[in-house]
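Researcher: I'm comparing several assemblies side by side, and this is the next one on my list. It has 692 residues spread over four chains. Same procedure as the others: predict the full complex and return the structure.
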Amino acid sequence: MPAKKTIRDVALLAGVSPATVSRVLNDNPRVSAENRERVLGAAKALRFRPNTQARLLAGKRTSTLLLIHPIAGPLTWYFHLLEAGLLKGCGRNGFQLDTLMVFPDSPRRMAKILQPIERGTCEGVVLAAPFSDDPEIIAAVRASRMPFVIIAAGAETRALAAGVGMDDEAAGHMMARHLLGLGHRRFGFTLGLPDHLSAQERFVGARKAFAEAGLGEDAVVEAEGGLDFPSGFAAFNRIHDTGFKPTAVICANDESAAGAIHAARMHGLQLPGALNIVGFDDAPFARLLSPPLTTIAQTIDIMGTRAVTILADAIRKIERPYEMVKPRLVIRESSERVRDFAASAE
Amino acid sequence: MPAKKTIRDVALLAGVSPATVSRVLNDNPRVSAENRERVLGAAKALRFRPNTQARLLAGKRTSTLLLIHPIAGPLTWYFHLLEAGLLKGCGRNGFQLDTLMVFPDSPRRMAKILQPIERGTCEGVVLAAPFSDDPEIIAAVRASRMPFVIIAAGAETRALAAGVGMDDEAAGHMMARHLLGLGHRRFGFTLGLPDHLSAQERFVGARKAFAEAGLGEDAVVEAEGGLDFPSGFAAFNRIHDTGFKPTAVICANDESAAGAIHAARMHGLQLPGALNIVGFDDAPFARLLSPPLTTIAQTIDIMGTRAVTILADAIRKIERPYEMVKPRLVIRESSERVRDFAASAE
DNA sequence: CTGAAAGCGCTTACAG
DNA sequence: CTGAAAGCGCTTACAG
């Protein structure tokens, strides 16, 4: 195996001091263009890779970003994807990633979140939902002067901090338009959790689309729900029990849609054919359901990568607004043009 | 924020030199019991946490483990779980984790895998399937003298190296026994990929159980398949086209089972009721299918954590045999007692 | 803009 | 078994 190259080797080849090499590597502007060229050339020629450990040690930096996310039963795929995206961004930007899991309902959640920030074990923080929705937490983190970004935040906190998230209202609007375009006129809704604002906004958008299409209140039945399979199952049953016969049911997310699909089958409904069920997120399993699920994709991993860039800027005191990612409709077999079945539903 | 404690602070409080503190921290046996006690006590009192960067730099070690896994479309959940388990183990054992993705069919796969090993950018390697099934790769890695473990290997390579995996033959046997116990006597099989040995072994085990139950060759129809949704879909259709009417179809894994479920529905079969379909893995989405899938759980994350321990031992020259994890049957709604439907299948 | 020097927190021969 | 010292590869005031 070839001997490891160090900053000294590069300095020797470039004919400068190690300090100058270090400056070039760190984008320090106080280096002449000529020396910069030579150092870069020498580094490339030697295939020099700086030693991360040494950089961190000498720079007295942790170069560690901290992801704070909820301990939650469902949606593990969501956090896997988010983490994968963050890791990718960390790799590009020379950061490490630590993860802190917090119970969203714990009374000690604020202390839990603030502890690593006050100890200085990280240089920046990524707040995932539902923490990104909580103005108190945002205020406390901001007061600590620790750079941070929020992911998938609701309207209130979005105005307060940098971050990324999907435009959920647009997503809801897009899904409703899709179904309206297929001829649907009677809808069911299974709602998400009250404290998860982004799920709420999906329905705000959908309602707008219904109103624009001239549908009245009697065209829609909502049911309390949640973001997991059992919640979707129960919510569907609640709609069914009202006697109202929607031709399409919009679920808060894909997991609850899976539950709703199963509930609909238990009632002997043919899917699709007698009923359309759709979700949000384009979870990895959405295409594995029967029928494969029509849904709205949000590129969570890409959002994670983007979040690191925004956070890296925040660390350098570059301020940015919260960024809204455009939703994308993914049409699969679970939605289809309304033929005569609308009349014969069930 | 409290000042960071260093090894010097601990040495001062314990009344020894920093070198002694370092030895205690590294389990060096050449420290008197008395000094060990004092150092440990001082470290605890000061809440001392050694600086990883400095340790790695001074020790000239990378403390990095390398996971080599295939670039594959489906089964991403599998690698997420494996990685999560490995990361947990790395945390406990003071390792970092790098991941190298390799195309299993690339002609350059051997070179890709050997490169980081020869460069010495890691201290140990984790080989995931299908690389763990390849005797050539095993031999090459062994020849490099780099410590390594294999995950989910077939019988041939299992005898050659340390690692962890489920006992797939036992898993297949267990699933077949479950279905036989429910009264099933006519079976369909969708096979996995030919080069993924652990999937093959599942069927070896199942066939044994059928033979033990006195079933003949005519009780089973197999179809070429794969490990993803489309493969399962196609494999089911192939079985269906033969005219054979199984009461239960055993699929190579959960993703292909999802495809088979969808195919069965397209043929108008009621699930369950007219047909049982089961899978292997207990993937996170298995409970989200309609019907929720009966399957065999393998604790992939725990296997990952265990793999790090085994690899850490290998690095210390402690040899271990390949470990087989016991499968666990997860019964959900997709399997049920055969009533009269066996006769009226379809 | 540039270099010499000190230092980041730890490990490890070396000498005892 | 123990300590003084050198050094891991880099960064950053400091002085110019």
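Model: For your comparison table: The longest strand of chain B covers residues 64-70.
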